[in-house]
Design a protein that fits this description.
Strand content: 25-35%
Helix content: 10-25%
CATH architecture of the largest domain: 3-Layer(aba) Sandwich
Radius of gyration: 31 Å
CATH class of the largest domain: Alpha Beta
Mean pLDDT: 95
Distance between the termini: 37 Å
Shape: elongated
Length: 403
Amino acid sequence: MALMPVADALAAILAGAEPLPEEMIALEAAYHRVLARDVAARRTQPPQAMSAMDGYAVRASDAADTSARLKVIGEVAAGRPFERKVGKGEAVRIFTGGVIPDGADAVIIQEDTAVDGDHITITEAAVPGRHIRAAGVDFREGDVLLKRGRRLTDRDLSLAAGMNYPELAVRRRPKVAVLGTGDELVMPGTSPGPGQIVYSNGYALRALARAEGAEVADLGIAADTLAATAEGIRRARELEADILITMGGASVGDHDLVKRSLEAEGTDMAFWRIAMRPGKPMMHGRLGAMRVIGLPGNPVSSYVCGFLFLVPLIRALLGRDTIHHVRERAVLGRDLAANDQREDYLRAWLEERADGVPVAVAVTHQDSSLLGNLAAARALVIRAPLAPAAVKGSRCEFLRLPD
């Protein structure tokens, strides 16, 4: 069977991935959730012209030069408007956030005034509109300030509150079930026996899914039997998972049982094995409404494939406005050999030249079992199939890994 190109594999995984249904949640719980609808302001902010400083609200024509002497007729504080109109030769003491009284069109800050009983004199002339926040200077009722597909930041929550929203319509979180497989795996904190290794893949994959906004269920580790693997798959269906991630058992050995177990449970396999490094033994299929991504067992392969394929799928199900990873440009920090027929994703450090251009330094050892190099990497340098040898300083493309 020919290896599937990376782009085709991603297209197959994303095919038909429509945003999940919406749900209403309290604004307090909406951080990092994805908007299902545009959000338009329910009010104008500020609703009236307000003072931006502590001082005196005046008619600019009465305070056009420093010879002016004005009578103070009242006071305005935030939330306590002044009911009278400011007339000729009058001023109103005003504090930041106070509504500009009728008749006034400027504010003289208190540092530029001197108080003489119930009058003030000024040391700087007034300018119409100075120190006044006009009505609607922030936004007006009906302005669409947050678009659907946006993942809400902390500042967005403040904006939504200011627009008078106590709750928002967001997309339901995708449910991702994660199943490790392999008799050789033991949990962290235990002592591995002969031929055993500590299970690590699931921790990175679950964190990656959570960081993208998914709900995650840990299905543990299935033994290398068809019955145990099938049981894990059935548990994912019972949880009504949108995505099942399996790790290991995807190659061609006698003990690689995941593909056989998935097919036995009725999975319609879309592909198996892709033209990339690391991660050739990766597979994808559908089991009813559940999407299945079978990742390789090597920890680096597992993570790189999860980053390249699981992340865009989660984003698509969330209706994100940006689904795909952004390719950035850099220069190589060391020579690279010619590539073979597989698309290569080299773990790399990122440095910066004096001119601000990023320098991608591929780690020396690219073996797909080396967790130390993966943890140290900040990027994946992309090498096209059959790319010729590249020298240090030549241009390259990379994907930035999560911090």
